[in-house]
Design a protein that fits this description.
The complex is a heterodimer of chains A (521) and B (369). Chain A has helices at residues 49-56, 79-85, 102-110, 116-129, 145-158, 175-190, 202-208, 231-239, 301-309, 332-337, 358-366, 371-374, 383-397, 413-425, 443-458, 470-476, 499-506, 517-520, and strands at 9-20, 23-34, 38-43, 64-69, 72-74, 87-90, 163-167, 194-198, 211-216, 219-224, 259-268, 278-286, 290-294, 320-322, 325-326, 340-343, 431-435, 462-466, 479-484, 487-488, 492-493. With 521 residues, chain A is α/β, with parallel strands linked by helices. In chain A, strands 13, 16, 17, 18, 19, 20 and 21 form a seven-stranded mixed beta sheet that branches. In chain A, strands 6-7-8-3-9-10 form a six-stranded mixed beta sheet, with helices on both faces. In chain A, strand 19 (479-484) and strand 20 (487-488) form a beta hairpin. The longest helix of chain A has 16 residues, at 175-190. Chain A is globular and about 65 Å long. By secondary structure, chain B is mainly α. Chain B has a domain at 64-306: ABC transporter involved in vitamin B12 uptake, BtuC (Orthogonal Bundle), CATH 1.10.3470. In chain B, 68% of the residues lie in helices and 3% in strands. Chain B is built from 15 helices and two strands. Chain B has helices spanning 13-37, 42-51, 57-82, 90-101, 103-107, 116-142, 146-166, 202-219, 221-231, 233-238, 243-270, 281-291, 296-320, 326-346, 365-368, and strands at 2-7, 347-352. Chain B has a two-stranded antiparallel ribbon. The model of chain B is unreliable at 354-369 (pLDDT under 50). The chains are: A alpha/beta (521), B mainly alpha (369). Chains A and B meet through helix 2, helix 10 and helix 11 of A and helix 9, helix 10 and helix 15 of B.
């Protein structure tokens, strides 16, 4: 049946094609995954990685092409079929219920009627044997993001898959946690399991992957051995041309520049049982500089962002000051009118309304600040003006889309992020607070966004970047501070910061951090 | 063999447009079965129910009289529902509009002139809006469920009206009948074309309201605010739109329109206050709003259809001796089928056969996120 009868390939994909309307998301993709290899799938956002993986996992049906599993032609029509074959997937976005325990969450997806206690015992045994210790009886809501990922991995392993697909697994981990994950992956490889590893972090692909398949605009542009490539040669294959390295001119006379964003003794009680309190946060961001806030997800970054943006008001008006004036009592609209702009972490449903067009999503954050330009007399929306402005941003940020003014939900994550960041940059704000500026964005676009953030700062604005991507923070920040368990460390000037120092702070190593752990549990 | 609902990647435009029509056909089929079970020839019954009530010009006026309150209330409700705010108490706001608007003709019958009617309409709107403000306040202050509070306030309003017309506001010359005095001429909403039928200005108010609300929702920043907060509240908060303000806006607007419908009905079709001034317009308007796809222009069409179910109910009662409660049955079936057919907008139906046992339903967890 298979053209290739050597039998060593676990999975062979021949000419797989998926067409959405006028867009060919995957164009005759070929892919071979051997038994016992870690195979990297590289590509920019919108290159077709997700579409390909969804077809392998049965969430999408291909228009044409063949899939061979152990040499047998198969049709994978649903995730259930994929699981039966032995394909497991760990998603980038976890699908866990916070109010249930880890074991209960696992039981939900196994769906084979075995008692929770059996599943818990199995999960515990499996987790320890793979060096991913996990207490199956703990509530998911109490667990860190890294621990939640372990649940997903254990859940996947319990189904004894032959092929495990991992989508951007390290994006939520500290460097130390990532190392741990790599050990597990290597252990799985040594047991003869195959892994399809999707990542945009080229260094880690070079480190753990045996082979790589690179996608560009839906087509396979090459297979290679990542160990023999350099990060920049891999990036060149992905993007098709050289990625502009981010240029960071040294910030000058920062000490004398005015403080544009000041956080003074910001404290916030936890809003829900699963959220983190903020404890006495102090921070100054001066005109012309980029300050980076590192930290593992779920350590209060979201709560901090809400407080600074004004989605949640402060009791002490002086705890957030914008351009020298108290802003703690002002709503997000009031803070925008003072010259601040905000980019939240979640794109769909927070930074953008999914079922609304891009032009309407422009209005979402700009209706007050650009009131006269976008909204006419009597509150009538100037639809021509918002359309023109949206098209301008689409052009400047190179947003790729399938219709002139599509719904936000129709864009890939990276392209929507480009639009949302572009929407705020277009205003030339004097204070910009960004949470995860390039999360899930491809290398070319990420470099574009990072450069734009630096340039905004150098033109005299204060830029505060919250990110879990340490490479990114080291690339763009003038100083880095770490958020752990609702507290913020003292900013380290970039010249003094190292991965190791920041990584330790992210793990809560600084005295005075660890003792709070029990309170929040 | 079993049926499986598969979520569509995006909403189907085709079924958005078709769904009300499919629902209507299904209602007719179910209605035919009902008439057959009642021992009536369905074809005869449908002729009497749907055709005869609108075969003469004066009957079209009756249709407009019934449609006016339905449309007025439903366009207000459409704003609420678009904002994901569930005002179920329009019936009560309608009654309070009727009561407050009637203050002038009942308590000051000697006050006459061109000012009376505008004041009555204004007071009707204030009455409806004020009554709607109660569930809004409870929701924003105490986080109560507005479905329950607004619904329960309907019964309070009905009993309050009942007490008024039997007690303090009863016509002293009315031989003990539970009703107020007849309104004086300047308190009566004029008829549009008195030579051909009874339809009054209420229908014009309904059409104007539909157009204004359509402009509000599709062209204005406020309508954008309603849609954002209704579809993604967190993005709405990021936009700086306040949810509490929106709760008040939606309740006050829909309450005012229901109040306007109430006073229009009292001063137009009835001419006095009685223990019962509405055959359930406030509830039927919920069906109208959804049948019209929460679009004000669609609501005008849906309002006319539902008005016909009222007229048809009266017609089958007099011609075939079937209870006019049959109108309620038709309205209920229509809403049931509309909501059912709307599933097709977001889901497609897949037949799962026994021939392909591999195609078992996988947990759709990942899609839920």
């Amino acid at each position: 049946m298979s053209a290739d009868q050597d039998g060593a390939n676990l999975l062979e994909v021949r000419g797989l094609t998926k067409i959405f309307g006028t867009l060919t998301a995957c164009d005759h993709v070929d892919l071979n995954i051997a038994k016992g290899e870690i195979h990297a799938l590289l590509g920019e956002n919108g290159a077709g990685k997700s579409t390909l993986v969804k077809m392998l996992f049965g969430s999408l049906e291909p228009n044409s092409g063949e899939i061979f599993w152990n040499g047998q032609a198969v049709r994978i029509t649903s995730p259930g079929t994929a699981k039966k074959l032995g394909i497991g997937m760990v998603f980038q976005h976890f699908s866990l219920f916070e109010a249930l325990t880890a074991a209960e969450n696992i039981a939900l997806s196994l769906d084979d009627g075995s008692p929770i206690s059996t599943i818990a015992a199995k999960a515990r045994a499996l987790s320890y044997s793979y060096g991913l210790p996990l207490d199956p009886l703990s509530l998911v809501g109490d667990l860190s993001v890294g621990e939640r990922q372990r649940i997903e991995i254990i859940r996947c392993l319990l189904q004894t898959p032959q092929l495990i697909i991992l989508d951007e697994p390290t994006s939520v981990l500290t460097p130390q946690e990532a190392d741990k994950l790599f050990e597990t992956l290597e252990r799985l490889r040594s047991e003869g399991k195959s892994i399809l590893y999707i990542s945009h972090r080229l260094e880690e692909v070079k480190r753990i992957c045996d082979r790589a398949t690179v996608l560009r605009h839906g087509k396979v542009v090459g297979h290679c051995n990542p160990r023999q490539e350099t990060a920049s040669s891999l990036a060149r294959m992905m993007v098709g041309n050289e990625i502009q390295a981010v240029v960071r001119a040294p910030a000058e006379d920062i000490e004398t520049a005015p403080v544009l964003l000041q956080i003074r003794e910001l404290t916030r009680k936890p809003a829900t049982p699963f959220s983190i309190p903020l404890r006495n946060i102090n921070l100054e961001v001066r005109a012309g500089e980029v300050i980076g806030i590192a930290g593992v997800a779920g350590n209060g970054q979201g709560e901090f962002f809400e407080s600074v943006s004004g989605e949640v008001l402060q009791q002490d008006a002086g705890s957030v000051r914008i351009r020298g004036k108290d802003a703690g009592g002002l709503t997000i609209t009031g803070r925008r009118l003072m010259g601040a702009a905000f980019v939240p972490e979640e794109r769909l449903g927070h930074g953008a309304a999914p079922r609304m067009k891009l032009s309407e999503n422009l209005l979402l954050s700009r209706h007050a600040t650009d009131g006269k330009m976008l909204v006419g007399a009597g509150g009538m929306v100037k639809s021509d003006a918002i359309y023109t402005a949206a098209q301008r941003i689409i052009k400047v940020m190179d947003v790729r889309k399938s219709a002139p003014d599509p719904e936000a939900a129709a864009l890939s994550g990276g392209n929507l992020q480009k639009f949302i960041v572009g929407r705020e940059l277009d205003r030339r704000p004097s204070v910009l607070v960004v949470n995860q500026p390039t999360w899930g964005v491809d290398a070319g676009a990420a470099a574009h966004i990072r450069q734009a953030l630096i340039e905004l700062a150098r033109s005299g604005s204060a830029v505060l970047v919250i990110s879990q991507d340490l490479d990114e923070l080291f690339e763009i920040s003038d100083a880095i501070t770490v958020m752990h368990n609702g507290e913020l460390s003292k900013p380290l000037p970039i010249a003094e910061a190292t991965f190791e120092k920041i990584g330790l702070l992210m793990g809560g190593a600084e005295p005075g951090h660890a003792e709070h752990t029990l309170e929040t549990a | 063999m079993r049926l499986e609902l598969v979520k569509r990647p995006q909403r189907s435009m085709l079924f958005s447009a078709l769904s009300p029509f499919i629902a209507f056909v299904l209602t007719i089929i179910a209605g035919a079965i009902m008439f057959a079970l009642l021992g009536v020839n369905p074809l005869t019954a449908f002729r009497i129910y749907f055709i005869e009530p609108i075969s003469q010009v004066w009957q079209l006026h009756e249709l407009a009289i019934k449609a006016a309150p339905l449309i007025l209330i439903a366009v207000g409700l459409s704003v609420c529902y678009k904002a994901n705010i569930w005002n179920i108490g329009a019936e009560g706001q309608f009654i309070l509009g009727g009561i407050v608007g009637s203050i002038f003709p009942v308590l000051f019958p000697q006050f006459e002139g061109p000012l009376v009617l505008p004041l009555m309409l204004l007071f009707g709107m204030i009455g409806g809006a004020a009554y709607a403000a109660i569930p809004a306040l409870l929701k924003t202050r105490f986080n109560t469920n507005e479905i329950l509070t607004s619904l329960m306030l309907v019964y309070v309003a009905q009993l309050f009206l009942d007490w008024l017309v039997r007690g303090p506001w009863r016509d002293p010359q009315g031989h003990g009948f539970p009703q107020t005095i007849q309104f004086n001429d300047s308190a009566i909403l004029p008829e549009l074309l008195p030579e051909s039928g009874r339809a009054n200005w209420g229908f014009v108010f309904a059409l104007i309201a539909a157009v204004l609300i359509w402009i509000l929702m599709s062209r204005m920043l406020k309508g954008f605010e309603v849609r954002v907060l209704g579809s993604s509240p967190r993005a709405g908060r990021f936009a700086g739109f306040g949810l509490s303000r929106m709760v008040f806006f939606a309740f006050l607007l829909s309450g005012a329109l229901a109040g306007l419908a109430g006073i229009s009905e009292v001063s137009g079709a009835i001419g006095q206050l009685q223990p019962v001034i509405s055959p359930g317009y406030g509830f039927t308007a919920i069906i109208v709003a959804f049948l019209g796809r929460l679009n004000p222009l669609g609501i005008v069409a849906a309002g006319l259809v539902l008005a016909l179910t009222y007229l048809g109910g009266e017609a089958v009662q007099s011609a075939l001796g079937i209870s006019d409660k049959v109108a309620r049955v038709f309205q209920g079936m229509l809403l049931f089928f509309v909501l059912g057919c709307d599933t097709l907008i977001h889901y497609r139906i897949r037949l799962t056969g026994l021939s392909a046992p591999k195609l078992e339903a996988a947990p759709k967890l990942e899609e839920a996120r």
